[in-house]
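Notebook, bench 3.
Goal today: get a predicted structure for Trafficking protein particle complex subunit 10 from Geodia barretti so we can plan the truncation constructs. The sequence was checked against the plasmid map this morning, with no discrepancies at the termini. Length recorded as 568 residues. Pasting the sequence as submitted so the record is complete.
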Amino acid sequence: MASTSGPTSDPCSPKPVVTYFGEIHLLSAVVQKKLQTRLKSLQLSSLSSLPKEEQIQGFSDVCDGVEFIELQKLPESQGQYPRPLHKRPALHTFWTECWKHETYTSITRPRIQKWLQGLEKGGVTECAIVYCITAEVRAKRQRTFSNFATTSHVMEDMKNDFKGNELLLLRLVSSEESRVLDSLLAFCSQVSSLCRAKFQKDIEVEAELVAGRRNAACEPKELYGIFLQKLNLAVSYEMTLQNEEALLLYQEAATDLESAVSIICGSQTPPTWLRALQEAQCDSWDYPKLAWHNLAWKYLPAIQTCSSPLLHTHTYLLTRIAHLHFTLERAWTVSDLVISTLHAMARQKRALKLPLPDGSFDCWAYMACNETVLAIMSRVNPDTLVDSTTSLLLVRAQLWHYALEKLHYIGGLCGLMPGNKAIEQNTSLIHTLINGISPVPFEVSSKEMVEDQGRKLRDILISKDSFKQAYLMLGEMVIGAFKHAGRRRMAFRVGTKMAKFHRDLGMMPEAEELLSDICRFLLRGSVAGAVCPFLRPPGRLPEEPPPRGPVSSSVRAYNTFLYQFVKK
């Protein structure tokens, strides 16, 4: 499994925003030159013929970790919630290749001045002018017998006219290819550095606002706004790799949302945001994909506009918090996180009467538990595995047990349990549940040798036979994990349920063998087990009620259960 630490270039992940204005066609020249430098064997046609959106995306790829947006198309804040911190521009840029002094004084300089005046009205002070030296400019200079002094004169005028603003030189043509590459790398580094500095200032200002609202009284209608404020700040911290701060804010946001829903859900006049959460239609119940944590970013825009179903909100929060725990090498805490999230979602589902199809939450919980086990196992330090084997087994047992209970409920709901007859309603429900499980995109999953829990559950629900095999395998894993962790009573409890499942399938010898095994394990090492005649020989179960005598009450109770089990 790929490491989950460090920044990524996933297109869904948020990045600092840089706006551009001026001679926009220069962006295609930047992209083309960058690709030709990196891949000299690749023959590229001019990118100026491509749609503008593709040119912009290509330039964003050149400057890793930055999202470029045309200034005139910068979206306005929608609804009652402000624009997220990471969507506010971190840097504004003006692009030009002007090389003639007359053109600069008559056209370019007035355009830059007008651009700056518009930004100053919005309170913007961080700006940069990007001066490009392209092949076209060089050719024009040669045709007009101009020399480099003309270009230098224009650059000096820009520095003097716009003091206080950064002037970035971007050389896209030179007799030496290395100079072009150095110029491109230096430019990308400058843009990233300016973005980080401005973005960090914005984070510090936002952090002070969040700290000031922690203990302040607020109206119910303001609670979701406070939740979003903490969430957006957590996203910004994560973008800048301040993982401890991001983890704290994500946890606070999750706690605030749960508390707000619990307190207000019984109100006669719930606020608008709570009604929106109640009425949000959920047509997919994708599990928290911890192996592909960047896929969770797709839920963020809907959360920020209060149009996301609660199930998706919990999926996003769980994925981000778990990813940060893994990054900080705290894999052990993820198990408790998942269980508490499942309980919180179940409570909110009942309290708000969410419009979720029957079994959808159980599918989500089943996949989340199995995914968490795989994620934890892949990140456990081998050096500490020997010392913590019991704890690790218990973590796996608890998560697998929760998954087994959910699978049992899904099987009963869909008519897949032994003895249930397939009816039209069951078939329709299975179809609904399968359609709500989106498999991991192939272009993502093909790069990782990780099991996709969505595809696995879809295969399980296809037929009774596949469900039976999956249920038996998971039950055996749960019993084994509890036994090795020393949890005898839990092993016995799960074992009796699995024995009943065997019995309902008509597999009576297997049921008797399983019951004998778990009873011997439960009473192992006790005096009572030594005097119990009904547990020997292996596989032999009582055919008559246990007699009264010098046998402990616990042994008599277990043997009574065995007798009743056989007689059913």
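The chain has three domains: 17-204, 217-486, 487-568. The two ends are 48 Å apart (CA to CA).
Flagging this for group meeting.
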